[in-house]
Amino acid sequence: MSASHDIPAVLPPPTMENLGGGFHAFVQLDGSWGLNNAGVHVGERGVTLIDTAFTEHRGRGLRDAIGTVTAKTVQTIVNTHHHGDHTYGNFLFPHATVIGHTLCREAVIAGGLETKEWFPGVDWGDIDLVPPTVTFEQSLRVYCDDTPATLQYQGPAHSSNDISMWVPERGLLFAGDLVFNGGTPFVVMGSIQGLIEALTELQGLDATTVVPGHGAVCEPDVIAEQLSYLRFVQDLARDGHAAGDDPLELARRTDLGHFGAWTDPERLVGNLHRAYSELRGEPRGVALDYQFVVDEMVSFNGGQPLRCLA
Ligand SMILES: [Zn+2]
């Protein structure tokens, strides 16, 4: 059995962390389901925002936090991928141009607000879906004032459409959900091998500061831990697939060891489904039955709904 994660009685409020050079990280701990981070650059004429938030309430909290460091308008939003915790809050910044991968735009439009169904009991507010209107395929340079940043497609990895934002002058990497600090990686909508390759590329950047998609701002050594989990899952899947084991049953009898202390350990079930898909030789990122996977993660948790504190 996996270790169960203790539910914190009270979560700390979101914070704005000054990273220098006009860059900030908006951090929502404990980084579990739906509690994502955003990046902020305060420029001379306006603000660049990397990702937004899941619920209307969380999105307004992000807007308020930006208001504590500048009165300037958010002019540009970069969506690191299509998941709702990174995109649902786009509408709260109506003057911004939203940039994302072409597949991110498609996935935001196709997915609508469907992930709301995965997380019963969340107070969503009134969300107006706003997909990216500037899209690209491989890479795009954006400037935060005169500081260049590279948006690089890294998918399929965590999702079909992940991009990272690398600011070489600052040694600063906004990794989106390619990196969870203290949280279980989640690849059911992407590719386990793809995420291994993406993380290996990110290690080569020589970043000094990593803003993960979830969890505290960190140093790049966190990436090695994420890689070791993904290889653990690949090894587990290889043996389980060869033995004809069902992913849920395999997950239930797996000892996650120290990985079990990370948030949302039930993601193992989804990750095994993705690993099995790759072992069957299916294309990276091919659609799986996500509702089935969510139902199995709930079963893994003894019937408890996915814990979302957004
Ligand atoms: Zn995500």
- Please report which band the strand proportion falls in: under 5%, 5-15%, 15-25%, 25-35%, 35-45% or over 45%: 15-25%
Largest sheet descriptor: 7 strands, mixed
Q: What is the strand tally? A: 12
So what's the oligomer here? single chain
Strand order of the largest sheet: 1-2-3-4-5-6-7
The radius of gyration is 18 Å
Structural commentary:
With 310 residues, the protein is of the alpha/beta class. It has one domain: Ribonuclease Z/Hydroxyacylglutathione hydrolase-like (Metallo-beta-lactamase, Chain A). The chain is 29% helix and 21% strand. It is built from 8 helices and 12 strands. It has helices at residues 56-67, 84-87, 102-111, 192-203, 221-243, 247-252, 267-279, 290-300; strands spanning 15-20, 23-27, 38-42, 47-50, 74-78, 97-101, 134-136, 139-144, 147-153, 163-167, 172-180, 209-214. It has a 7-stranded mixed sheet. A 5-stranded mixed sheet has the order 8-9-10-11-12, with helices on one face. The longest helix has 23 residues, at 221-243. The protein is globular and about 60 Å long. It starts with 14 loop residues before the first strand and ends in a 10-residue tail after the last helix. Mean pLDDT is 96; it is low at 1-5. The structure holds zinc ion. Zinc ion binds at residues 81, 83, 158-159, 177.
